[in-house]
Amino acid sequence: MNTKLLIAFAVAGLAGTAHAQSAFEGFYGQIATGYESNTIENLDNFYTYRLISGFTGSGSSKASSQNASGMPLVFGVGYNFKINNSWLIGLGVDYSALSQVDTSPYSASNSNGGRTPNIQLTVQDRYNIFLSPAFVIDKDKLAYFKVGYSAQTVKSLTPAHTTPTGYVSAVNTSNNVNGYILGLGYKQMISGGFYGFAEVNYMKYTKGDTNVGYSSIDSNRTSFTTASDFGASTYTLLVGLGYRF
Known about the structure:
By secondary structure, the chain is mainly beta. The protein has one helix spanning 2-20; strands at 26-41, 45-50, 56-62, 66-70, 73-82, 87-96, 100-101, 106-110, 115-138, 141-162, 168-191, 194-206, 215-217, 223-228, 231-244. Strands 1-5-6-9-10-11-12-15 form an 8-stranded antiparallel barrel. A hairpin with a 2-residue loop joins strand 11 and strand 12 (194-206).
C-alpha cells in the first residue's frame, strides 16, 4: 500500500514538473497567414474647395459600408512569463504586412448634387500590442486569450474624374483609426523549439484622425481638402509557425 502511494506521489510530482517547465516560457517569434475581412464604416466625408476665382464652398458625401478581404501575412514577437504551474502571461506585438483592398469600388453621393465615382478603399499597416493570458494544457500545448490595442490605416483613392462643375479631379485620403483586439488561440510544440498555432481575432476601430489627408489641385487649379472619420471592424482566422528561443 505504501509503495502504491509513493508511486502515485511520484507521478503527480512528475506531472507538476512538466507543467512547471512549459516549453512556451520565454521569447518567441512567429509568422501566420489565413483569412482576413475588414468592414469599413462611417464613410461620411466632409470637404471644402476653393476655385481659382477665389470662390470657396463646402459639402459632404455619404456612402454605405464597404468590405475589403483577402489573405494576410502577420509577423509577431513576444515573451511569455510564468505565473504558476498552470498559467503564463504573454506580452506581444504583431504587424500585418499585406494591404487588403476593396475590390468593388463604390460611388458616393454628395450634397452638391453629384456623385464621386470609383472610390477604392485599402486597409494597411495594422499593428497590435496585447497581453495574452495562457493556460498550460501540458508541457507542449498552450491555450491563450489576447486583449490589447490595435491601430491601422484606411486609405481612400478616387481616380481622376469630372466633377459636377466640369473640372477633373483625383482624390487620395488617409485615415488612421485605432481600437482594441480580442483573440483566442492554441499553440503546440512540433520539435526543437518550433511550434504551430491557430487563432481567431476580432478588432474594432473607432473614428480616427480628422483632417487626415490631402490637398489636391484639379485641371482648373481648384484646391480641395477633406475630413473623414472612418471606423472599421476586422476579423482574422490565422494559422502559422513560430519558434520559441
